[in-house]
Design brief:
Chain B: Pfam families: RNA_pol_3_Rpc31 (PF11705). The complex is a heterodimer of chains A (about 160) and B (about 250). Chain A has helices at about 5-20, 20-30, 35-45, 50-60, 90-95, 100-110, 110-125, 130-155, and strands at about 35, 65-70, 80-85. By secondary structure, chain A is mainly alpha-helical. Chain A folds into two domains: about 5-95, Winged helix-like DNA-binding domain superfamily/Winged helix DNA-binding domain (Arc Repressor Mutant, subunit A, Orthogonal Bundle); about 95-155. Chain B is mostly helical and about 250 residues long. In chain B, α3 crosses α5. The two termini of chain B are about 95 Å apart.
Chain lengths: ~160, ~250
């Protein structure tokens, strides 16, 4: 069970990182437990689009987990599937420690590893393809800055 | 385990004697020796990294903010509400004075300036040097891998609702359901029938085993009935009045 001060801290963190809209959705999920999209829209009094975007961000950053419940009694032939969203409190608090994680990785491993972790912390979740592309970009940027530095020294 | 916890507070008692804890005066701010500040390391790298991450998120598409408009108006409205509450409590003569004074205050205050500046869209030269507060962000759909999210969330961001079938009453599907239910019932009945048969067989076996005993027990003993002893035939035993055959109909 999450205490009220824990919820306040988590909401503050999310507000700081992703803005007040996302924090509002997050607070409702933390206080009321798993909810459906319709219920979140009703409780937050935001537009459905705003709530959808907030949920996308929260899921992307592993602060919310979506799961579907299949219930019998759907209007059509199959059972009715009901998607619910659950806030992940511990993951929200871990956001405080991101800089610490980065520091430990940079101390233990090389700069490349730090870059990979930084990308993951910034974007929450990335595919392997995205990570490879990002690493390539970083390497090219580092090369170009070195070249620029050299040419500047020459000039 | 419980006795361990109990004993913790009574260490000074000696010999495990059961006495009350000694009362000590409560000190609100006791003198505590704080550690030396210089010995605490200042982790500037952590602060810098976290600020860097925060700045990244604030500039990215992940940052959603409700646009707060007309701040001055809101504050002004709050003040007006506060004024209305206080006015209820103050006498009628002083109401006039309060209204006048607040009126003058609002006219000369920043709130009225705000209202004016919102109504006119004249760009000042001094505003050009100010940093623009609105940051152009990428849309979420450009960044996220939308395949891996719930369908109801993605449908909106593409601007298309997932195509819904019109909900119609399909009699065939209902009949199919009924057939399915009938099958289930039949199966259930079949199972019950089997169970009953098995039970009966079992009972017969039992009966065979207990035949001798039951014969003795089940012998009809109608003695009580015939003797009318300990037999309740719902008749009024205490008012046994014979009507002389009046109950019977006369033809």
């Amino acid at each position: 069970m999450v205490s009220q001060y824990g919820i306040k801290l988590a909401v503050h963190l999310i507000n700081n990182h992703f803005g007040n809209l996302v924090a509002k959705v997050c607070e409702n999920l933390l206080r009321r437990g798993p909810l459906t999209l319709q219920l979140i829209v009703r409780y937050t009094e935001l537009t459905p689009q705003q709530v959808k975007n907030s949920l996308l961000i929260l899921i992307q950053h592993n602060c919310v987990q979506a799961f579907s419940l299949e219930q019998e009694g759907g209007l059509e032939d199959g059972p009715r599937s009901n998607t619910q969203y659950m806030a992940l409190f511990n993951n929200m608090l871990h956001r405080m420690r991101f800089s610490k994680f980065l520091e430990i990785v940079s101390r233990e491993f090389d700069e490349e590893c730090k870059g990979l972790l930084e990308g993951l912390l910034q974007h929450g979740r990335l595919t392997l393809k995205q990570m490879v592309e990002r690493a390539k970009d970083m390497a090219e940027r580092a090369k170009s800055t070195k070249k620029e530095g050299k040419s500047f020294v020459k000039v | 385990m419980a006795f361990r916890g109990r004993g913790r507070g009574r260490g000074y008692g000696g010999g495990g004697g059961y006495g009350f804890a000694k009362q000590e005066p409560f000190e609100l701010f006791p003198d505590i020796e704080l550690p030396d500040i210089k010995s605490v390391p200042k982790e500037e790298t952590l602060v810098r990294e976290s600020a860097k991450l925060r700045n990244f998120w604030k500039a990215s598409a992940y940052y959603l903010e409700e646009t707060v408009s007309k701040r001055g108006m809101d504050i002004g409205q709050q003040s007006v509400d506060f004024l209305a509450i206080t006015l209820d409590m103050v006498a009628a003569e002083s109401q006039k004075w309060l209204l006048d004074s607040f009126g003058v205050y609002f006219m000369s205050s920043i709130f009225s300036m705000n209202l004016n500046s919102q109504s006119t869209d004249i760009e000042r030269y001094s505003d050009r040097s100010k940093p623009k507060t609105t940051i152009t962000r990428d849309s979420l759909s450009q960044i996220l891998e939308l395949k891996k999210f719930p369908r109801e969330l993605i449908g909106g961001s593409r601007g298309q609702q997932p195509s819904r079938k019109k909900v119609r009453w399909n009699p065939e599907s209902e009949l199919q359901k009924l057939d399915y239910l009938e099958k289930l019932e039949q199966r259930a009945q079949g199972l019950e029938g089997k169970d009953e048969k098995e039970k009966k067989e079992g009972e017969n076996e039992d009966e065979d085993e207990n035949d001798g005993e039951e014969d003795i027990e089940e012998e009809p003993s109608d003695d009580d009935y015939y003797q009318n002893v300990d037999f309740d035939d719902d008749e009024d035993d205490f008012n046994d009045v014979d009507d002389g055959g009046e109950d019977e109909g006369t033809f």
